[in-house]
Amino acid sequence: MGMFFTICIFLILFLIAWIDGKTKRIPDRLLAVLLAAEICAVPFFPEIEMAERGMGILCVSVPLLMLNLIRPGAFGGGDIKLSAVSGMFLGWRRMADAFLLALFMAGGYAFRLLAGKKKGRRDCFAFGPFLCMGIMTAFFMIFMGKSPGYLYKHVSCHM
User: Does the keyword Disulfide bond apply (predicted)?
Assistant: First the structure.
């Protein structure tokens, strides 16, 4: 049954990434469906404690919200809500991993756009697809039985 919810969560994240990539909007209805699927999946992943899940709601969404208050438009409201919803499932450590992965991927994409002169420094692009990829990677690491920070420990050793 846990696999069913996992597949549902991945499909919803793919849909969110695709829609946000096309429209720069993350529909609240999809976030509600994602939240419901994640709540149903919680019993199948007991290794993440409830306190960690509670902190996961806040660890990325609050800094994004604060940054958005300081610099309006830095992140969309959908990105903030997606990080809160996914943080509830992943817990704060894995959500921090997911966000850092998303930042690296989005940074590489932004560099490519700037280098190719397709976008300027003031132009924006959807962050949701990168956040979804980071979330899916962190989620996958749970299945692999890897601890939070696993990717960083192994990548930094080879640099």
Answer: no
